[in-house]
Amino acid sequence: MEPLRGTRPEGALVEYAANAVAAAGATANPVLVLASNGRRVAARLVDTVIASAFACLGFMAAAASSDGVALLVLVPVGFAAGGLLYFLPLVHWWGTTIGKRIFGLRVVRLWSDGTLPPSWKDTFLREFDRAAFLSLPVLNLLVGAILLMQMAKDRGTYHQSKYDRAARTVVVRY
């Protein structure tokens, strides 16, 4: 059985709909409306600005007390750590970040009823690659361009990014 390819596992009571209109004519099972690409991109931009602001505060403190060579090491590490410290607890505990909450989105476990946020392992799988690659000076532009291209194309039945597929999560509207 392969739930990521559209096959619903036995015993799963939840159904997914691409929009609210499709969810209106649904069965008695819970129906979760999948997040649109536009909302996901907008939420990610808000989250990136917030995580970058936290990282910049740390950089200003480090710049006041160290030389320029140390900052070359601190900047990429700080962005990765700042991103992880922002995303991991929020997504694990509440299934949402500030940007996702503004746009009415939540990260849930695939085939759950929409109330279970991802486990620590799933959250780490979902967020670590993004934080690590986006913190590297040259790779951040390349990875950012790849992510935008991926957002523009169809991402399968459940509108999942590669990070969602790795963590077995889905982003839904609430």
Describe the structure concisely for a colleague:
With 174 residues, the protein is mainly α. The protein has helices spanning 20-24, 37-65, 68-94, 98-102, 120-134, 139-152, 162-167, and strands at 15-17, 31-33, 105-109, 169-173. Helices cover 58% and strands 9% of the residues.
Distance from N terminus to C terminus (CA atoms, Å) equals 28 Å
Order of helices and strands: EHEHHHEHHHE
Q: Would you count the extended β strands for me?
A: 4
Count of structural domains: 1
**Uncertain regions spanning at least 5 consecutive residues:** none
Number of helices: 7
The gross shape turns out to be elongated
Strand content: 5-15%
SSE order and pairing:
Blueprint: E1 15-17, H1 20-24, E2 31-33, H2 37-65, H3 68-94, H4 98-102, E3 105-109, H5 120-134, H6 139-152, H7 162-167, E4 169-173
Parallel strand pairs: 1-2
Antiparallel strand pairs: 3-4
Helix pairs in contact: 2-3, 3-5
